[in-house]
Design a protein that fits this description.
Layout (H helix, E strand, L loop, with lengths): L1 H14 L2 H37 L5 E6 L1 E4 L2 E5 L7 H10 L3 E16 L2 E10 L3 H4 L4 E4 L4 H6 L3 E4 L1 H8 L8 E4 L2 E9 L14 E5 H8 L7 E6 L5 H15 L10 E5 H44 L1 H9 L4 H38 L7 H27 L3 H6 L2
Parallel strand pairs: 5-10, 7-9
Antiparallel strand pairs: 1-11, 1-12, 2-3, 4-5, 4-8, 4-11, 6-9, 7-10, 8-9
Helix pairs in contact: 1-11, 2-9, 2-11, 2-12, 3-8, 9-11, 9-12, 11-12
Length: 405
C-alpha cells in the first residue's frame, strides 16, 4: 500500500508539468526506438541471409577453381582452369559421403525468342544440379543425364528470364536461340530471389554442361563444382577428403598452396554475418549513446525537481517521513519517466521498422526479447541516473528545507 501511494504521488508530481515530462522522456524514447530498429534490422538481415544461404541447397560444399594473376593483379576465383573432367569423375567415385556432384561452366550471351531478346547468365550444369540445390520445377521437368551425355540442346529457364522473353505465356516447349543455336525449354524453375551475393538467381538459364562447353564457352575445364554431402555431420569429413583428393590429382607438393578453393554454406554465412555484425555494433553504439543522453536528461530534471520541491520535502520530513521514503518517491518518479519513455520508444521503434520495410524494402524482424530488453534497460537507466537526485533529496535537513523559499 505504501508503495502504491508513493507511485500515485510520483505520477501526480510528473503530471504537474506535462510538457517538461514529455521533453525529459524524449531522449529515452529516441534511444529505445533506435535500439528496437537496430535489433529489427539485424534480425531481418540475419533471417534473410540464412534464407539465401539455405537456397543453395542442403549440405552443400562449393569447390572453386583457383585464381590467375595478370600483371600482378589477382583475377578472382574461376580465372585459372584448374578443375578438370578427371577431377569431376574422381569426386563422384572416390570421396565417401558424397551424395551428388555437379560441375559448373559459365557463359553469357544474347538469347532470343521471336522479337524478344535479352542478355543472360548461362550456366552449364549436370542433371543432379537441381536436386543438390533443392530447386523444384514450376513447370516442365529438368534435363536428364542422357541429355548431358549427348550434349542435347535443351535448357531450364529461371522465372525472371522467362518473364522477359515470354511474359505470361508458358515457356516449356518453346525454342529459343542462343548464339544462333536452337535450344528447347524443358523446364521452368520455381523462383528463389536474390542469392547470398546479391544477384538475381532467377535471371539465368541452365543447360547441360556438355552443351555449354561445346557450343557456348568452348571451355575444357570447369569454373566450380557443387558437392552435396550425404548428411550435415559429414560435411567436415567430406571437405577434408575433397581437399586431399584434389591436391593428389593436381600433384600439389606438401606445404604448397592449393590451386582451388573450398567453401561450405556455414563459412559463407559466417563471412557475410561478420560484416553485418560490425554495422550492427556501430548502430547499437549510437543507440546506446542516445539512451545515456536520455538518462542524463532525467538526472538533470530530477535535480531541478528536488530543488523546486525542497520545502515540500522539508514538510514531509517534519511530519514523520523517513529518508528512505523520500528516496523511494524520487526514485519511482525517475523510473516512471524512463519506463514510460521506454514503452513509447518501443511503439516508435516498431512503427519506424515497419516504415523502413515499406519504403526501402529492408527486411526487419522485431523479437519479443528485444522489446523486453529495451524496456528493462530503460528502467535500469532510470534507476542509475535517478538515484543521485533521490539520495540528495533524502539526505536534506528538515529545518534547512523548511527555511527554503
Amino acid at each position: 500500500m505504501i508503495l502504491l501511494a508513493t507511485l500515485r504521488m510520483a505520477v501526480r508530481a510528473l503530471l504537474r508539468n506535462v510538457l517538461r515530462t514529455l521533453l525529459t522522456m524524449l531522449g529515452i524514447i529516441i534511444g529505445v526506438a533506435a535500439v528496437i530498429v537496430v535489433v529489427a534490422l539485424g534480425n531481418g538481415a540475419r533471417a534473410e541471409l540464412e534464407a539465401r544461404v539455405a537456397s543453395l541447397g542442403q549440405n552443400v560444399i562449393m569447390v572453386m577453381s583457383g585464381s590467375a594473376s595478370r600483371g600482378g593483379v589477382r583475377m578472382g576465383f574461376g580465372s585459372a582452369p584448374t578443375l578438370t573432367e578427371a577431377d569431376y569423375a574422381a569426386l563422384q567415385t572416390e570421396v565417401p559421403g558424397v551424395a551428388g556432384v555437379s560441375p559448373e561452366v559459365r557463359a553469357s550471351g544474347q538469347i532470343a525468342y521471336g522479337n524478344q531478346n535479352t542478355s543472360v547468365d548461362i550456366r552449364g550444369v549436370s542433371a543432379s544440379f537441381f536436386d543438390i540445390r533443392s530447386w523444384p520445377m514450376a513447370d516442365g521437368e529438368p534435363f536428364s543425364e542422357q541429355d548431358v551425355r549427348s550434349g542435347a540442346k535443351v535448357a531450364v529457364i529461371g522465372r525472371t528470364t522467362k518473364q522477359t522473353l515470354f511474359g505470361d505465356e508458358p515457356a516449356v516447349g518453346q525454342v529459343i536461340r542462343i548464339r544462333n543455336a536452337p535450344f528447347t525449354i524443358v523446364g521452368e524453375l520455381v523462383p528463389k530471389g536474390s542469392s547470398s551475393f546479391g544477384g538475381d538467381q532467377d535471371d539465368t538459364l541452365y543447360v547441360p554442361y556438355t552443351s555449354a562447353m561445346r557450343r557456348l564457352s568452348r571451355d575444357t575445364s570447369f569454373r566450380s563444382f557443387l558437392v552435396q554431402a550425404a548428411a550435415a555431420d559429414q560435411i567436415p569429413a567430406v571437405t577434408n577428403e575433397l581437399a586431399s583428393l584434389l591436391r593428389q590429382k593436381h600433384r600439389i607438393p606438401e606445404g604448397g598452396p592449393d590451386d582451388f578453393i573450398i567453401r561450405t554454406q556455414q563459412e559463407i554465412a559466417e563471412f557475410f554475418d561478420a560484416s553485418q555484425r560490425i554495422m550492427r555494433a556501430l548502430l547499437a553504439a549510437v543507440a546506446g549513446v542516445s539512451l545515456v543522453v536520455g538518462g542524463i536528461g532525467i538526472m538533470n530534471i530530477m535535480l531541478v525537481s528536488v530543488t523546486e520541491r525542497t520545502r515540500e520535502i522539508g514538510v514531509r520530513l517534519a511530519v514523520g517521513a523517513r529518508g528512505r521514503d523520500i528516496l523511494l518517491q524520487f526514485l519511482i518518479e525517475a523510473v516512471t519517466l524512463s519506463v514510460l519513455g521506454g514503452a513509447l520508444g518501443v511503439l516508435a521503434g516498431y512503427g519506424a521498422a515497419k516504415l523502413l520495410t515499406a519504403r526501402t524494402q529492408w527486411a526487419t524482424l522485431i523479437s519479443p526479447d528485444s522489446v523486453l530488453v529495451a524496456v528493462a534497460f530503460s528502467a535500469a537507466i532510470g534507476i542509475f541516473f535517478g538515484f543521485y537526485p533521490a539520495r540528495r533529496a533524502s539526505q536534506m535537513d528538515p529545518i534547512e528545507a523548511l527555511r527554503h523559499e
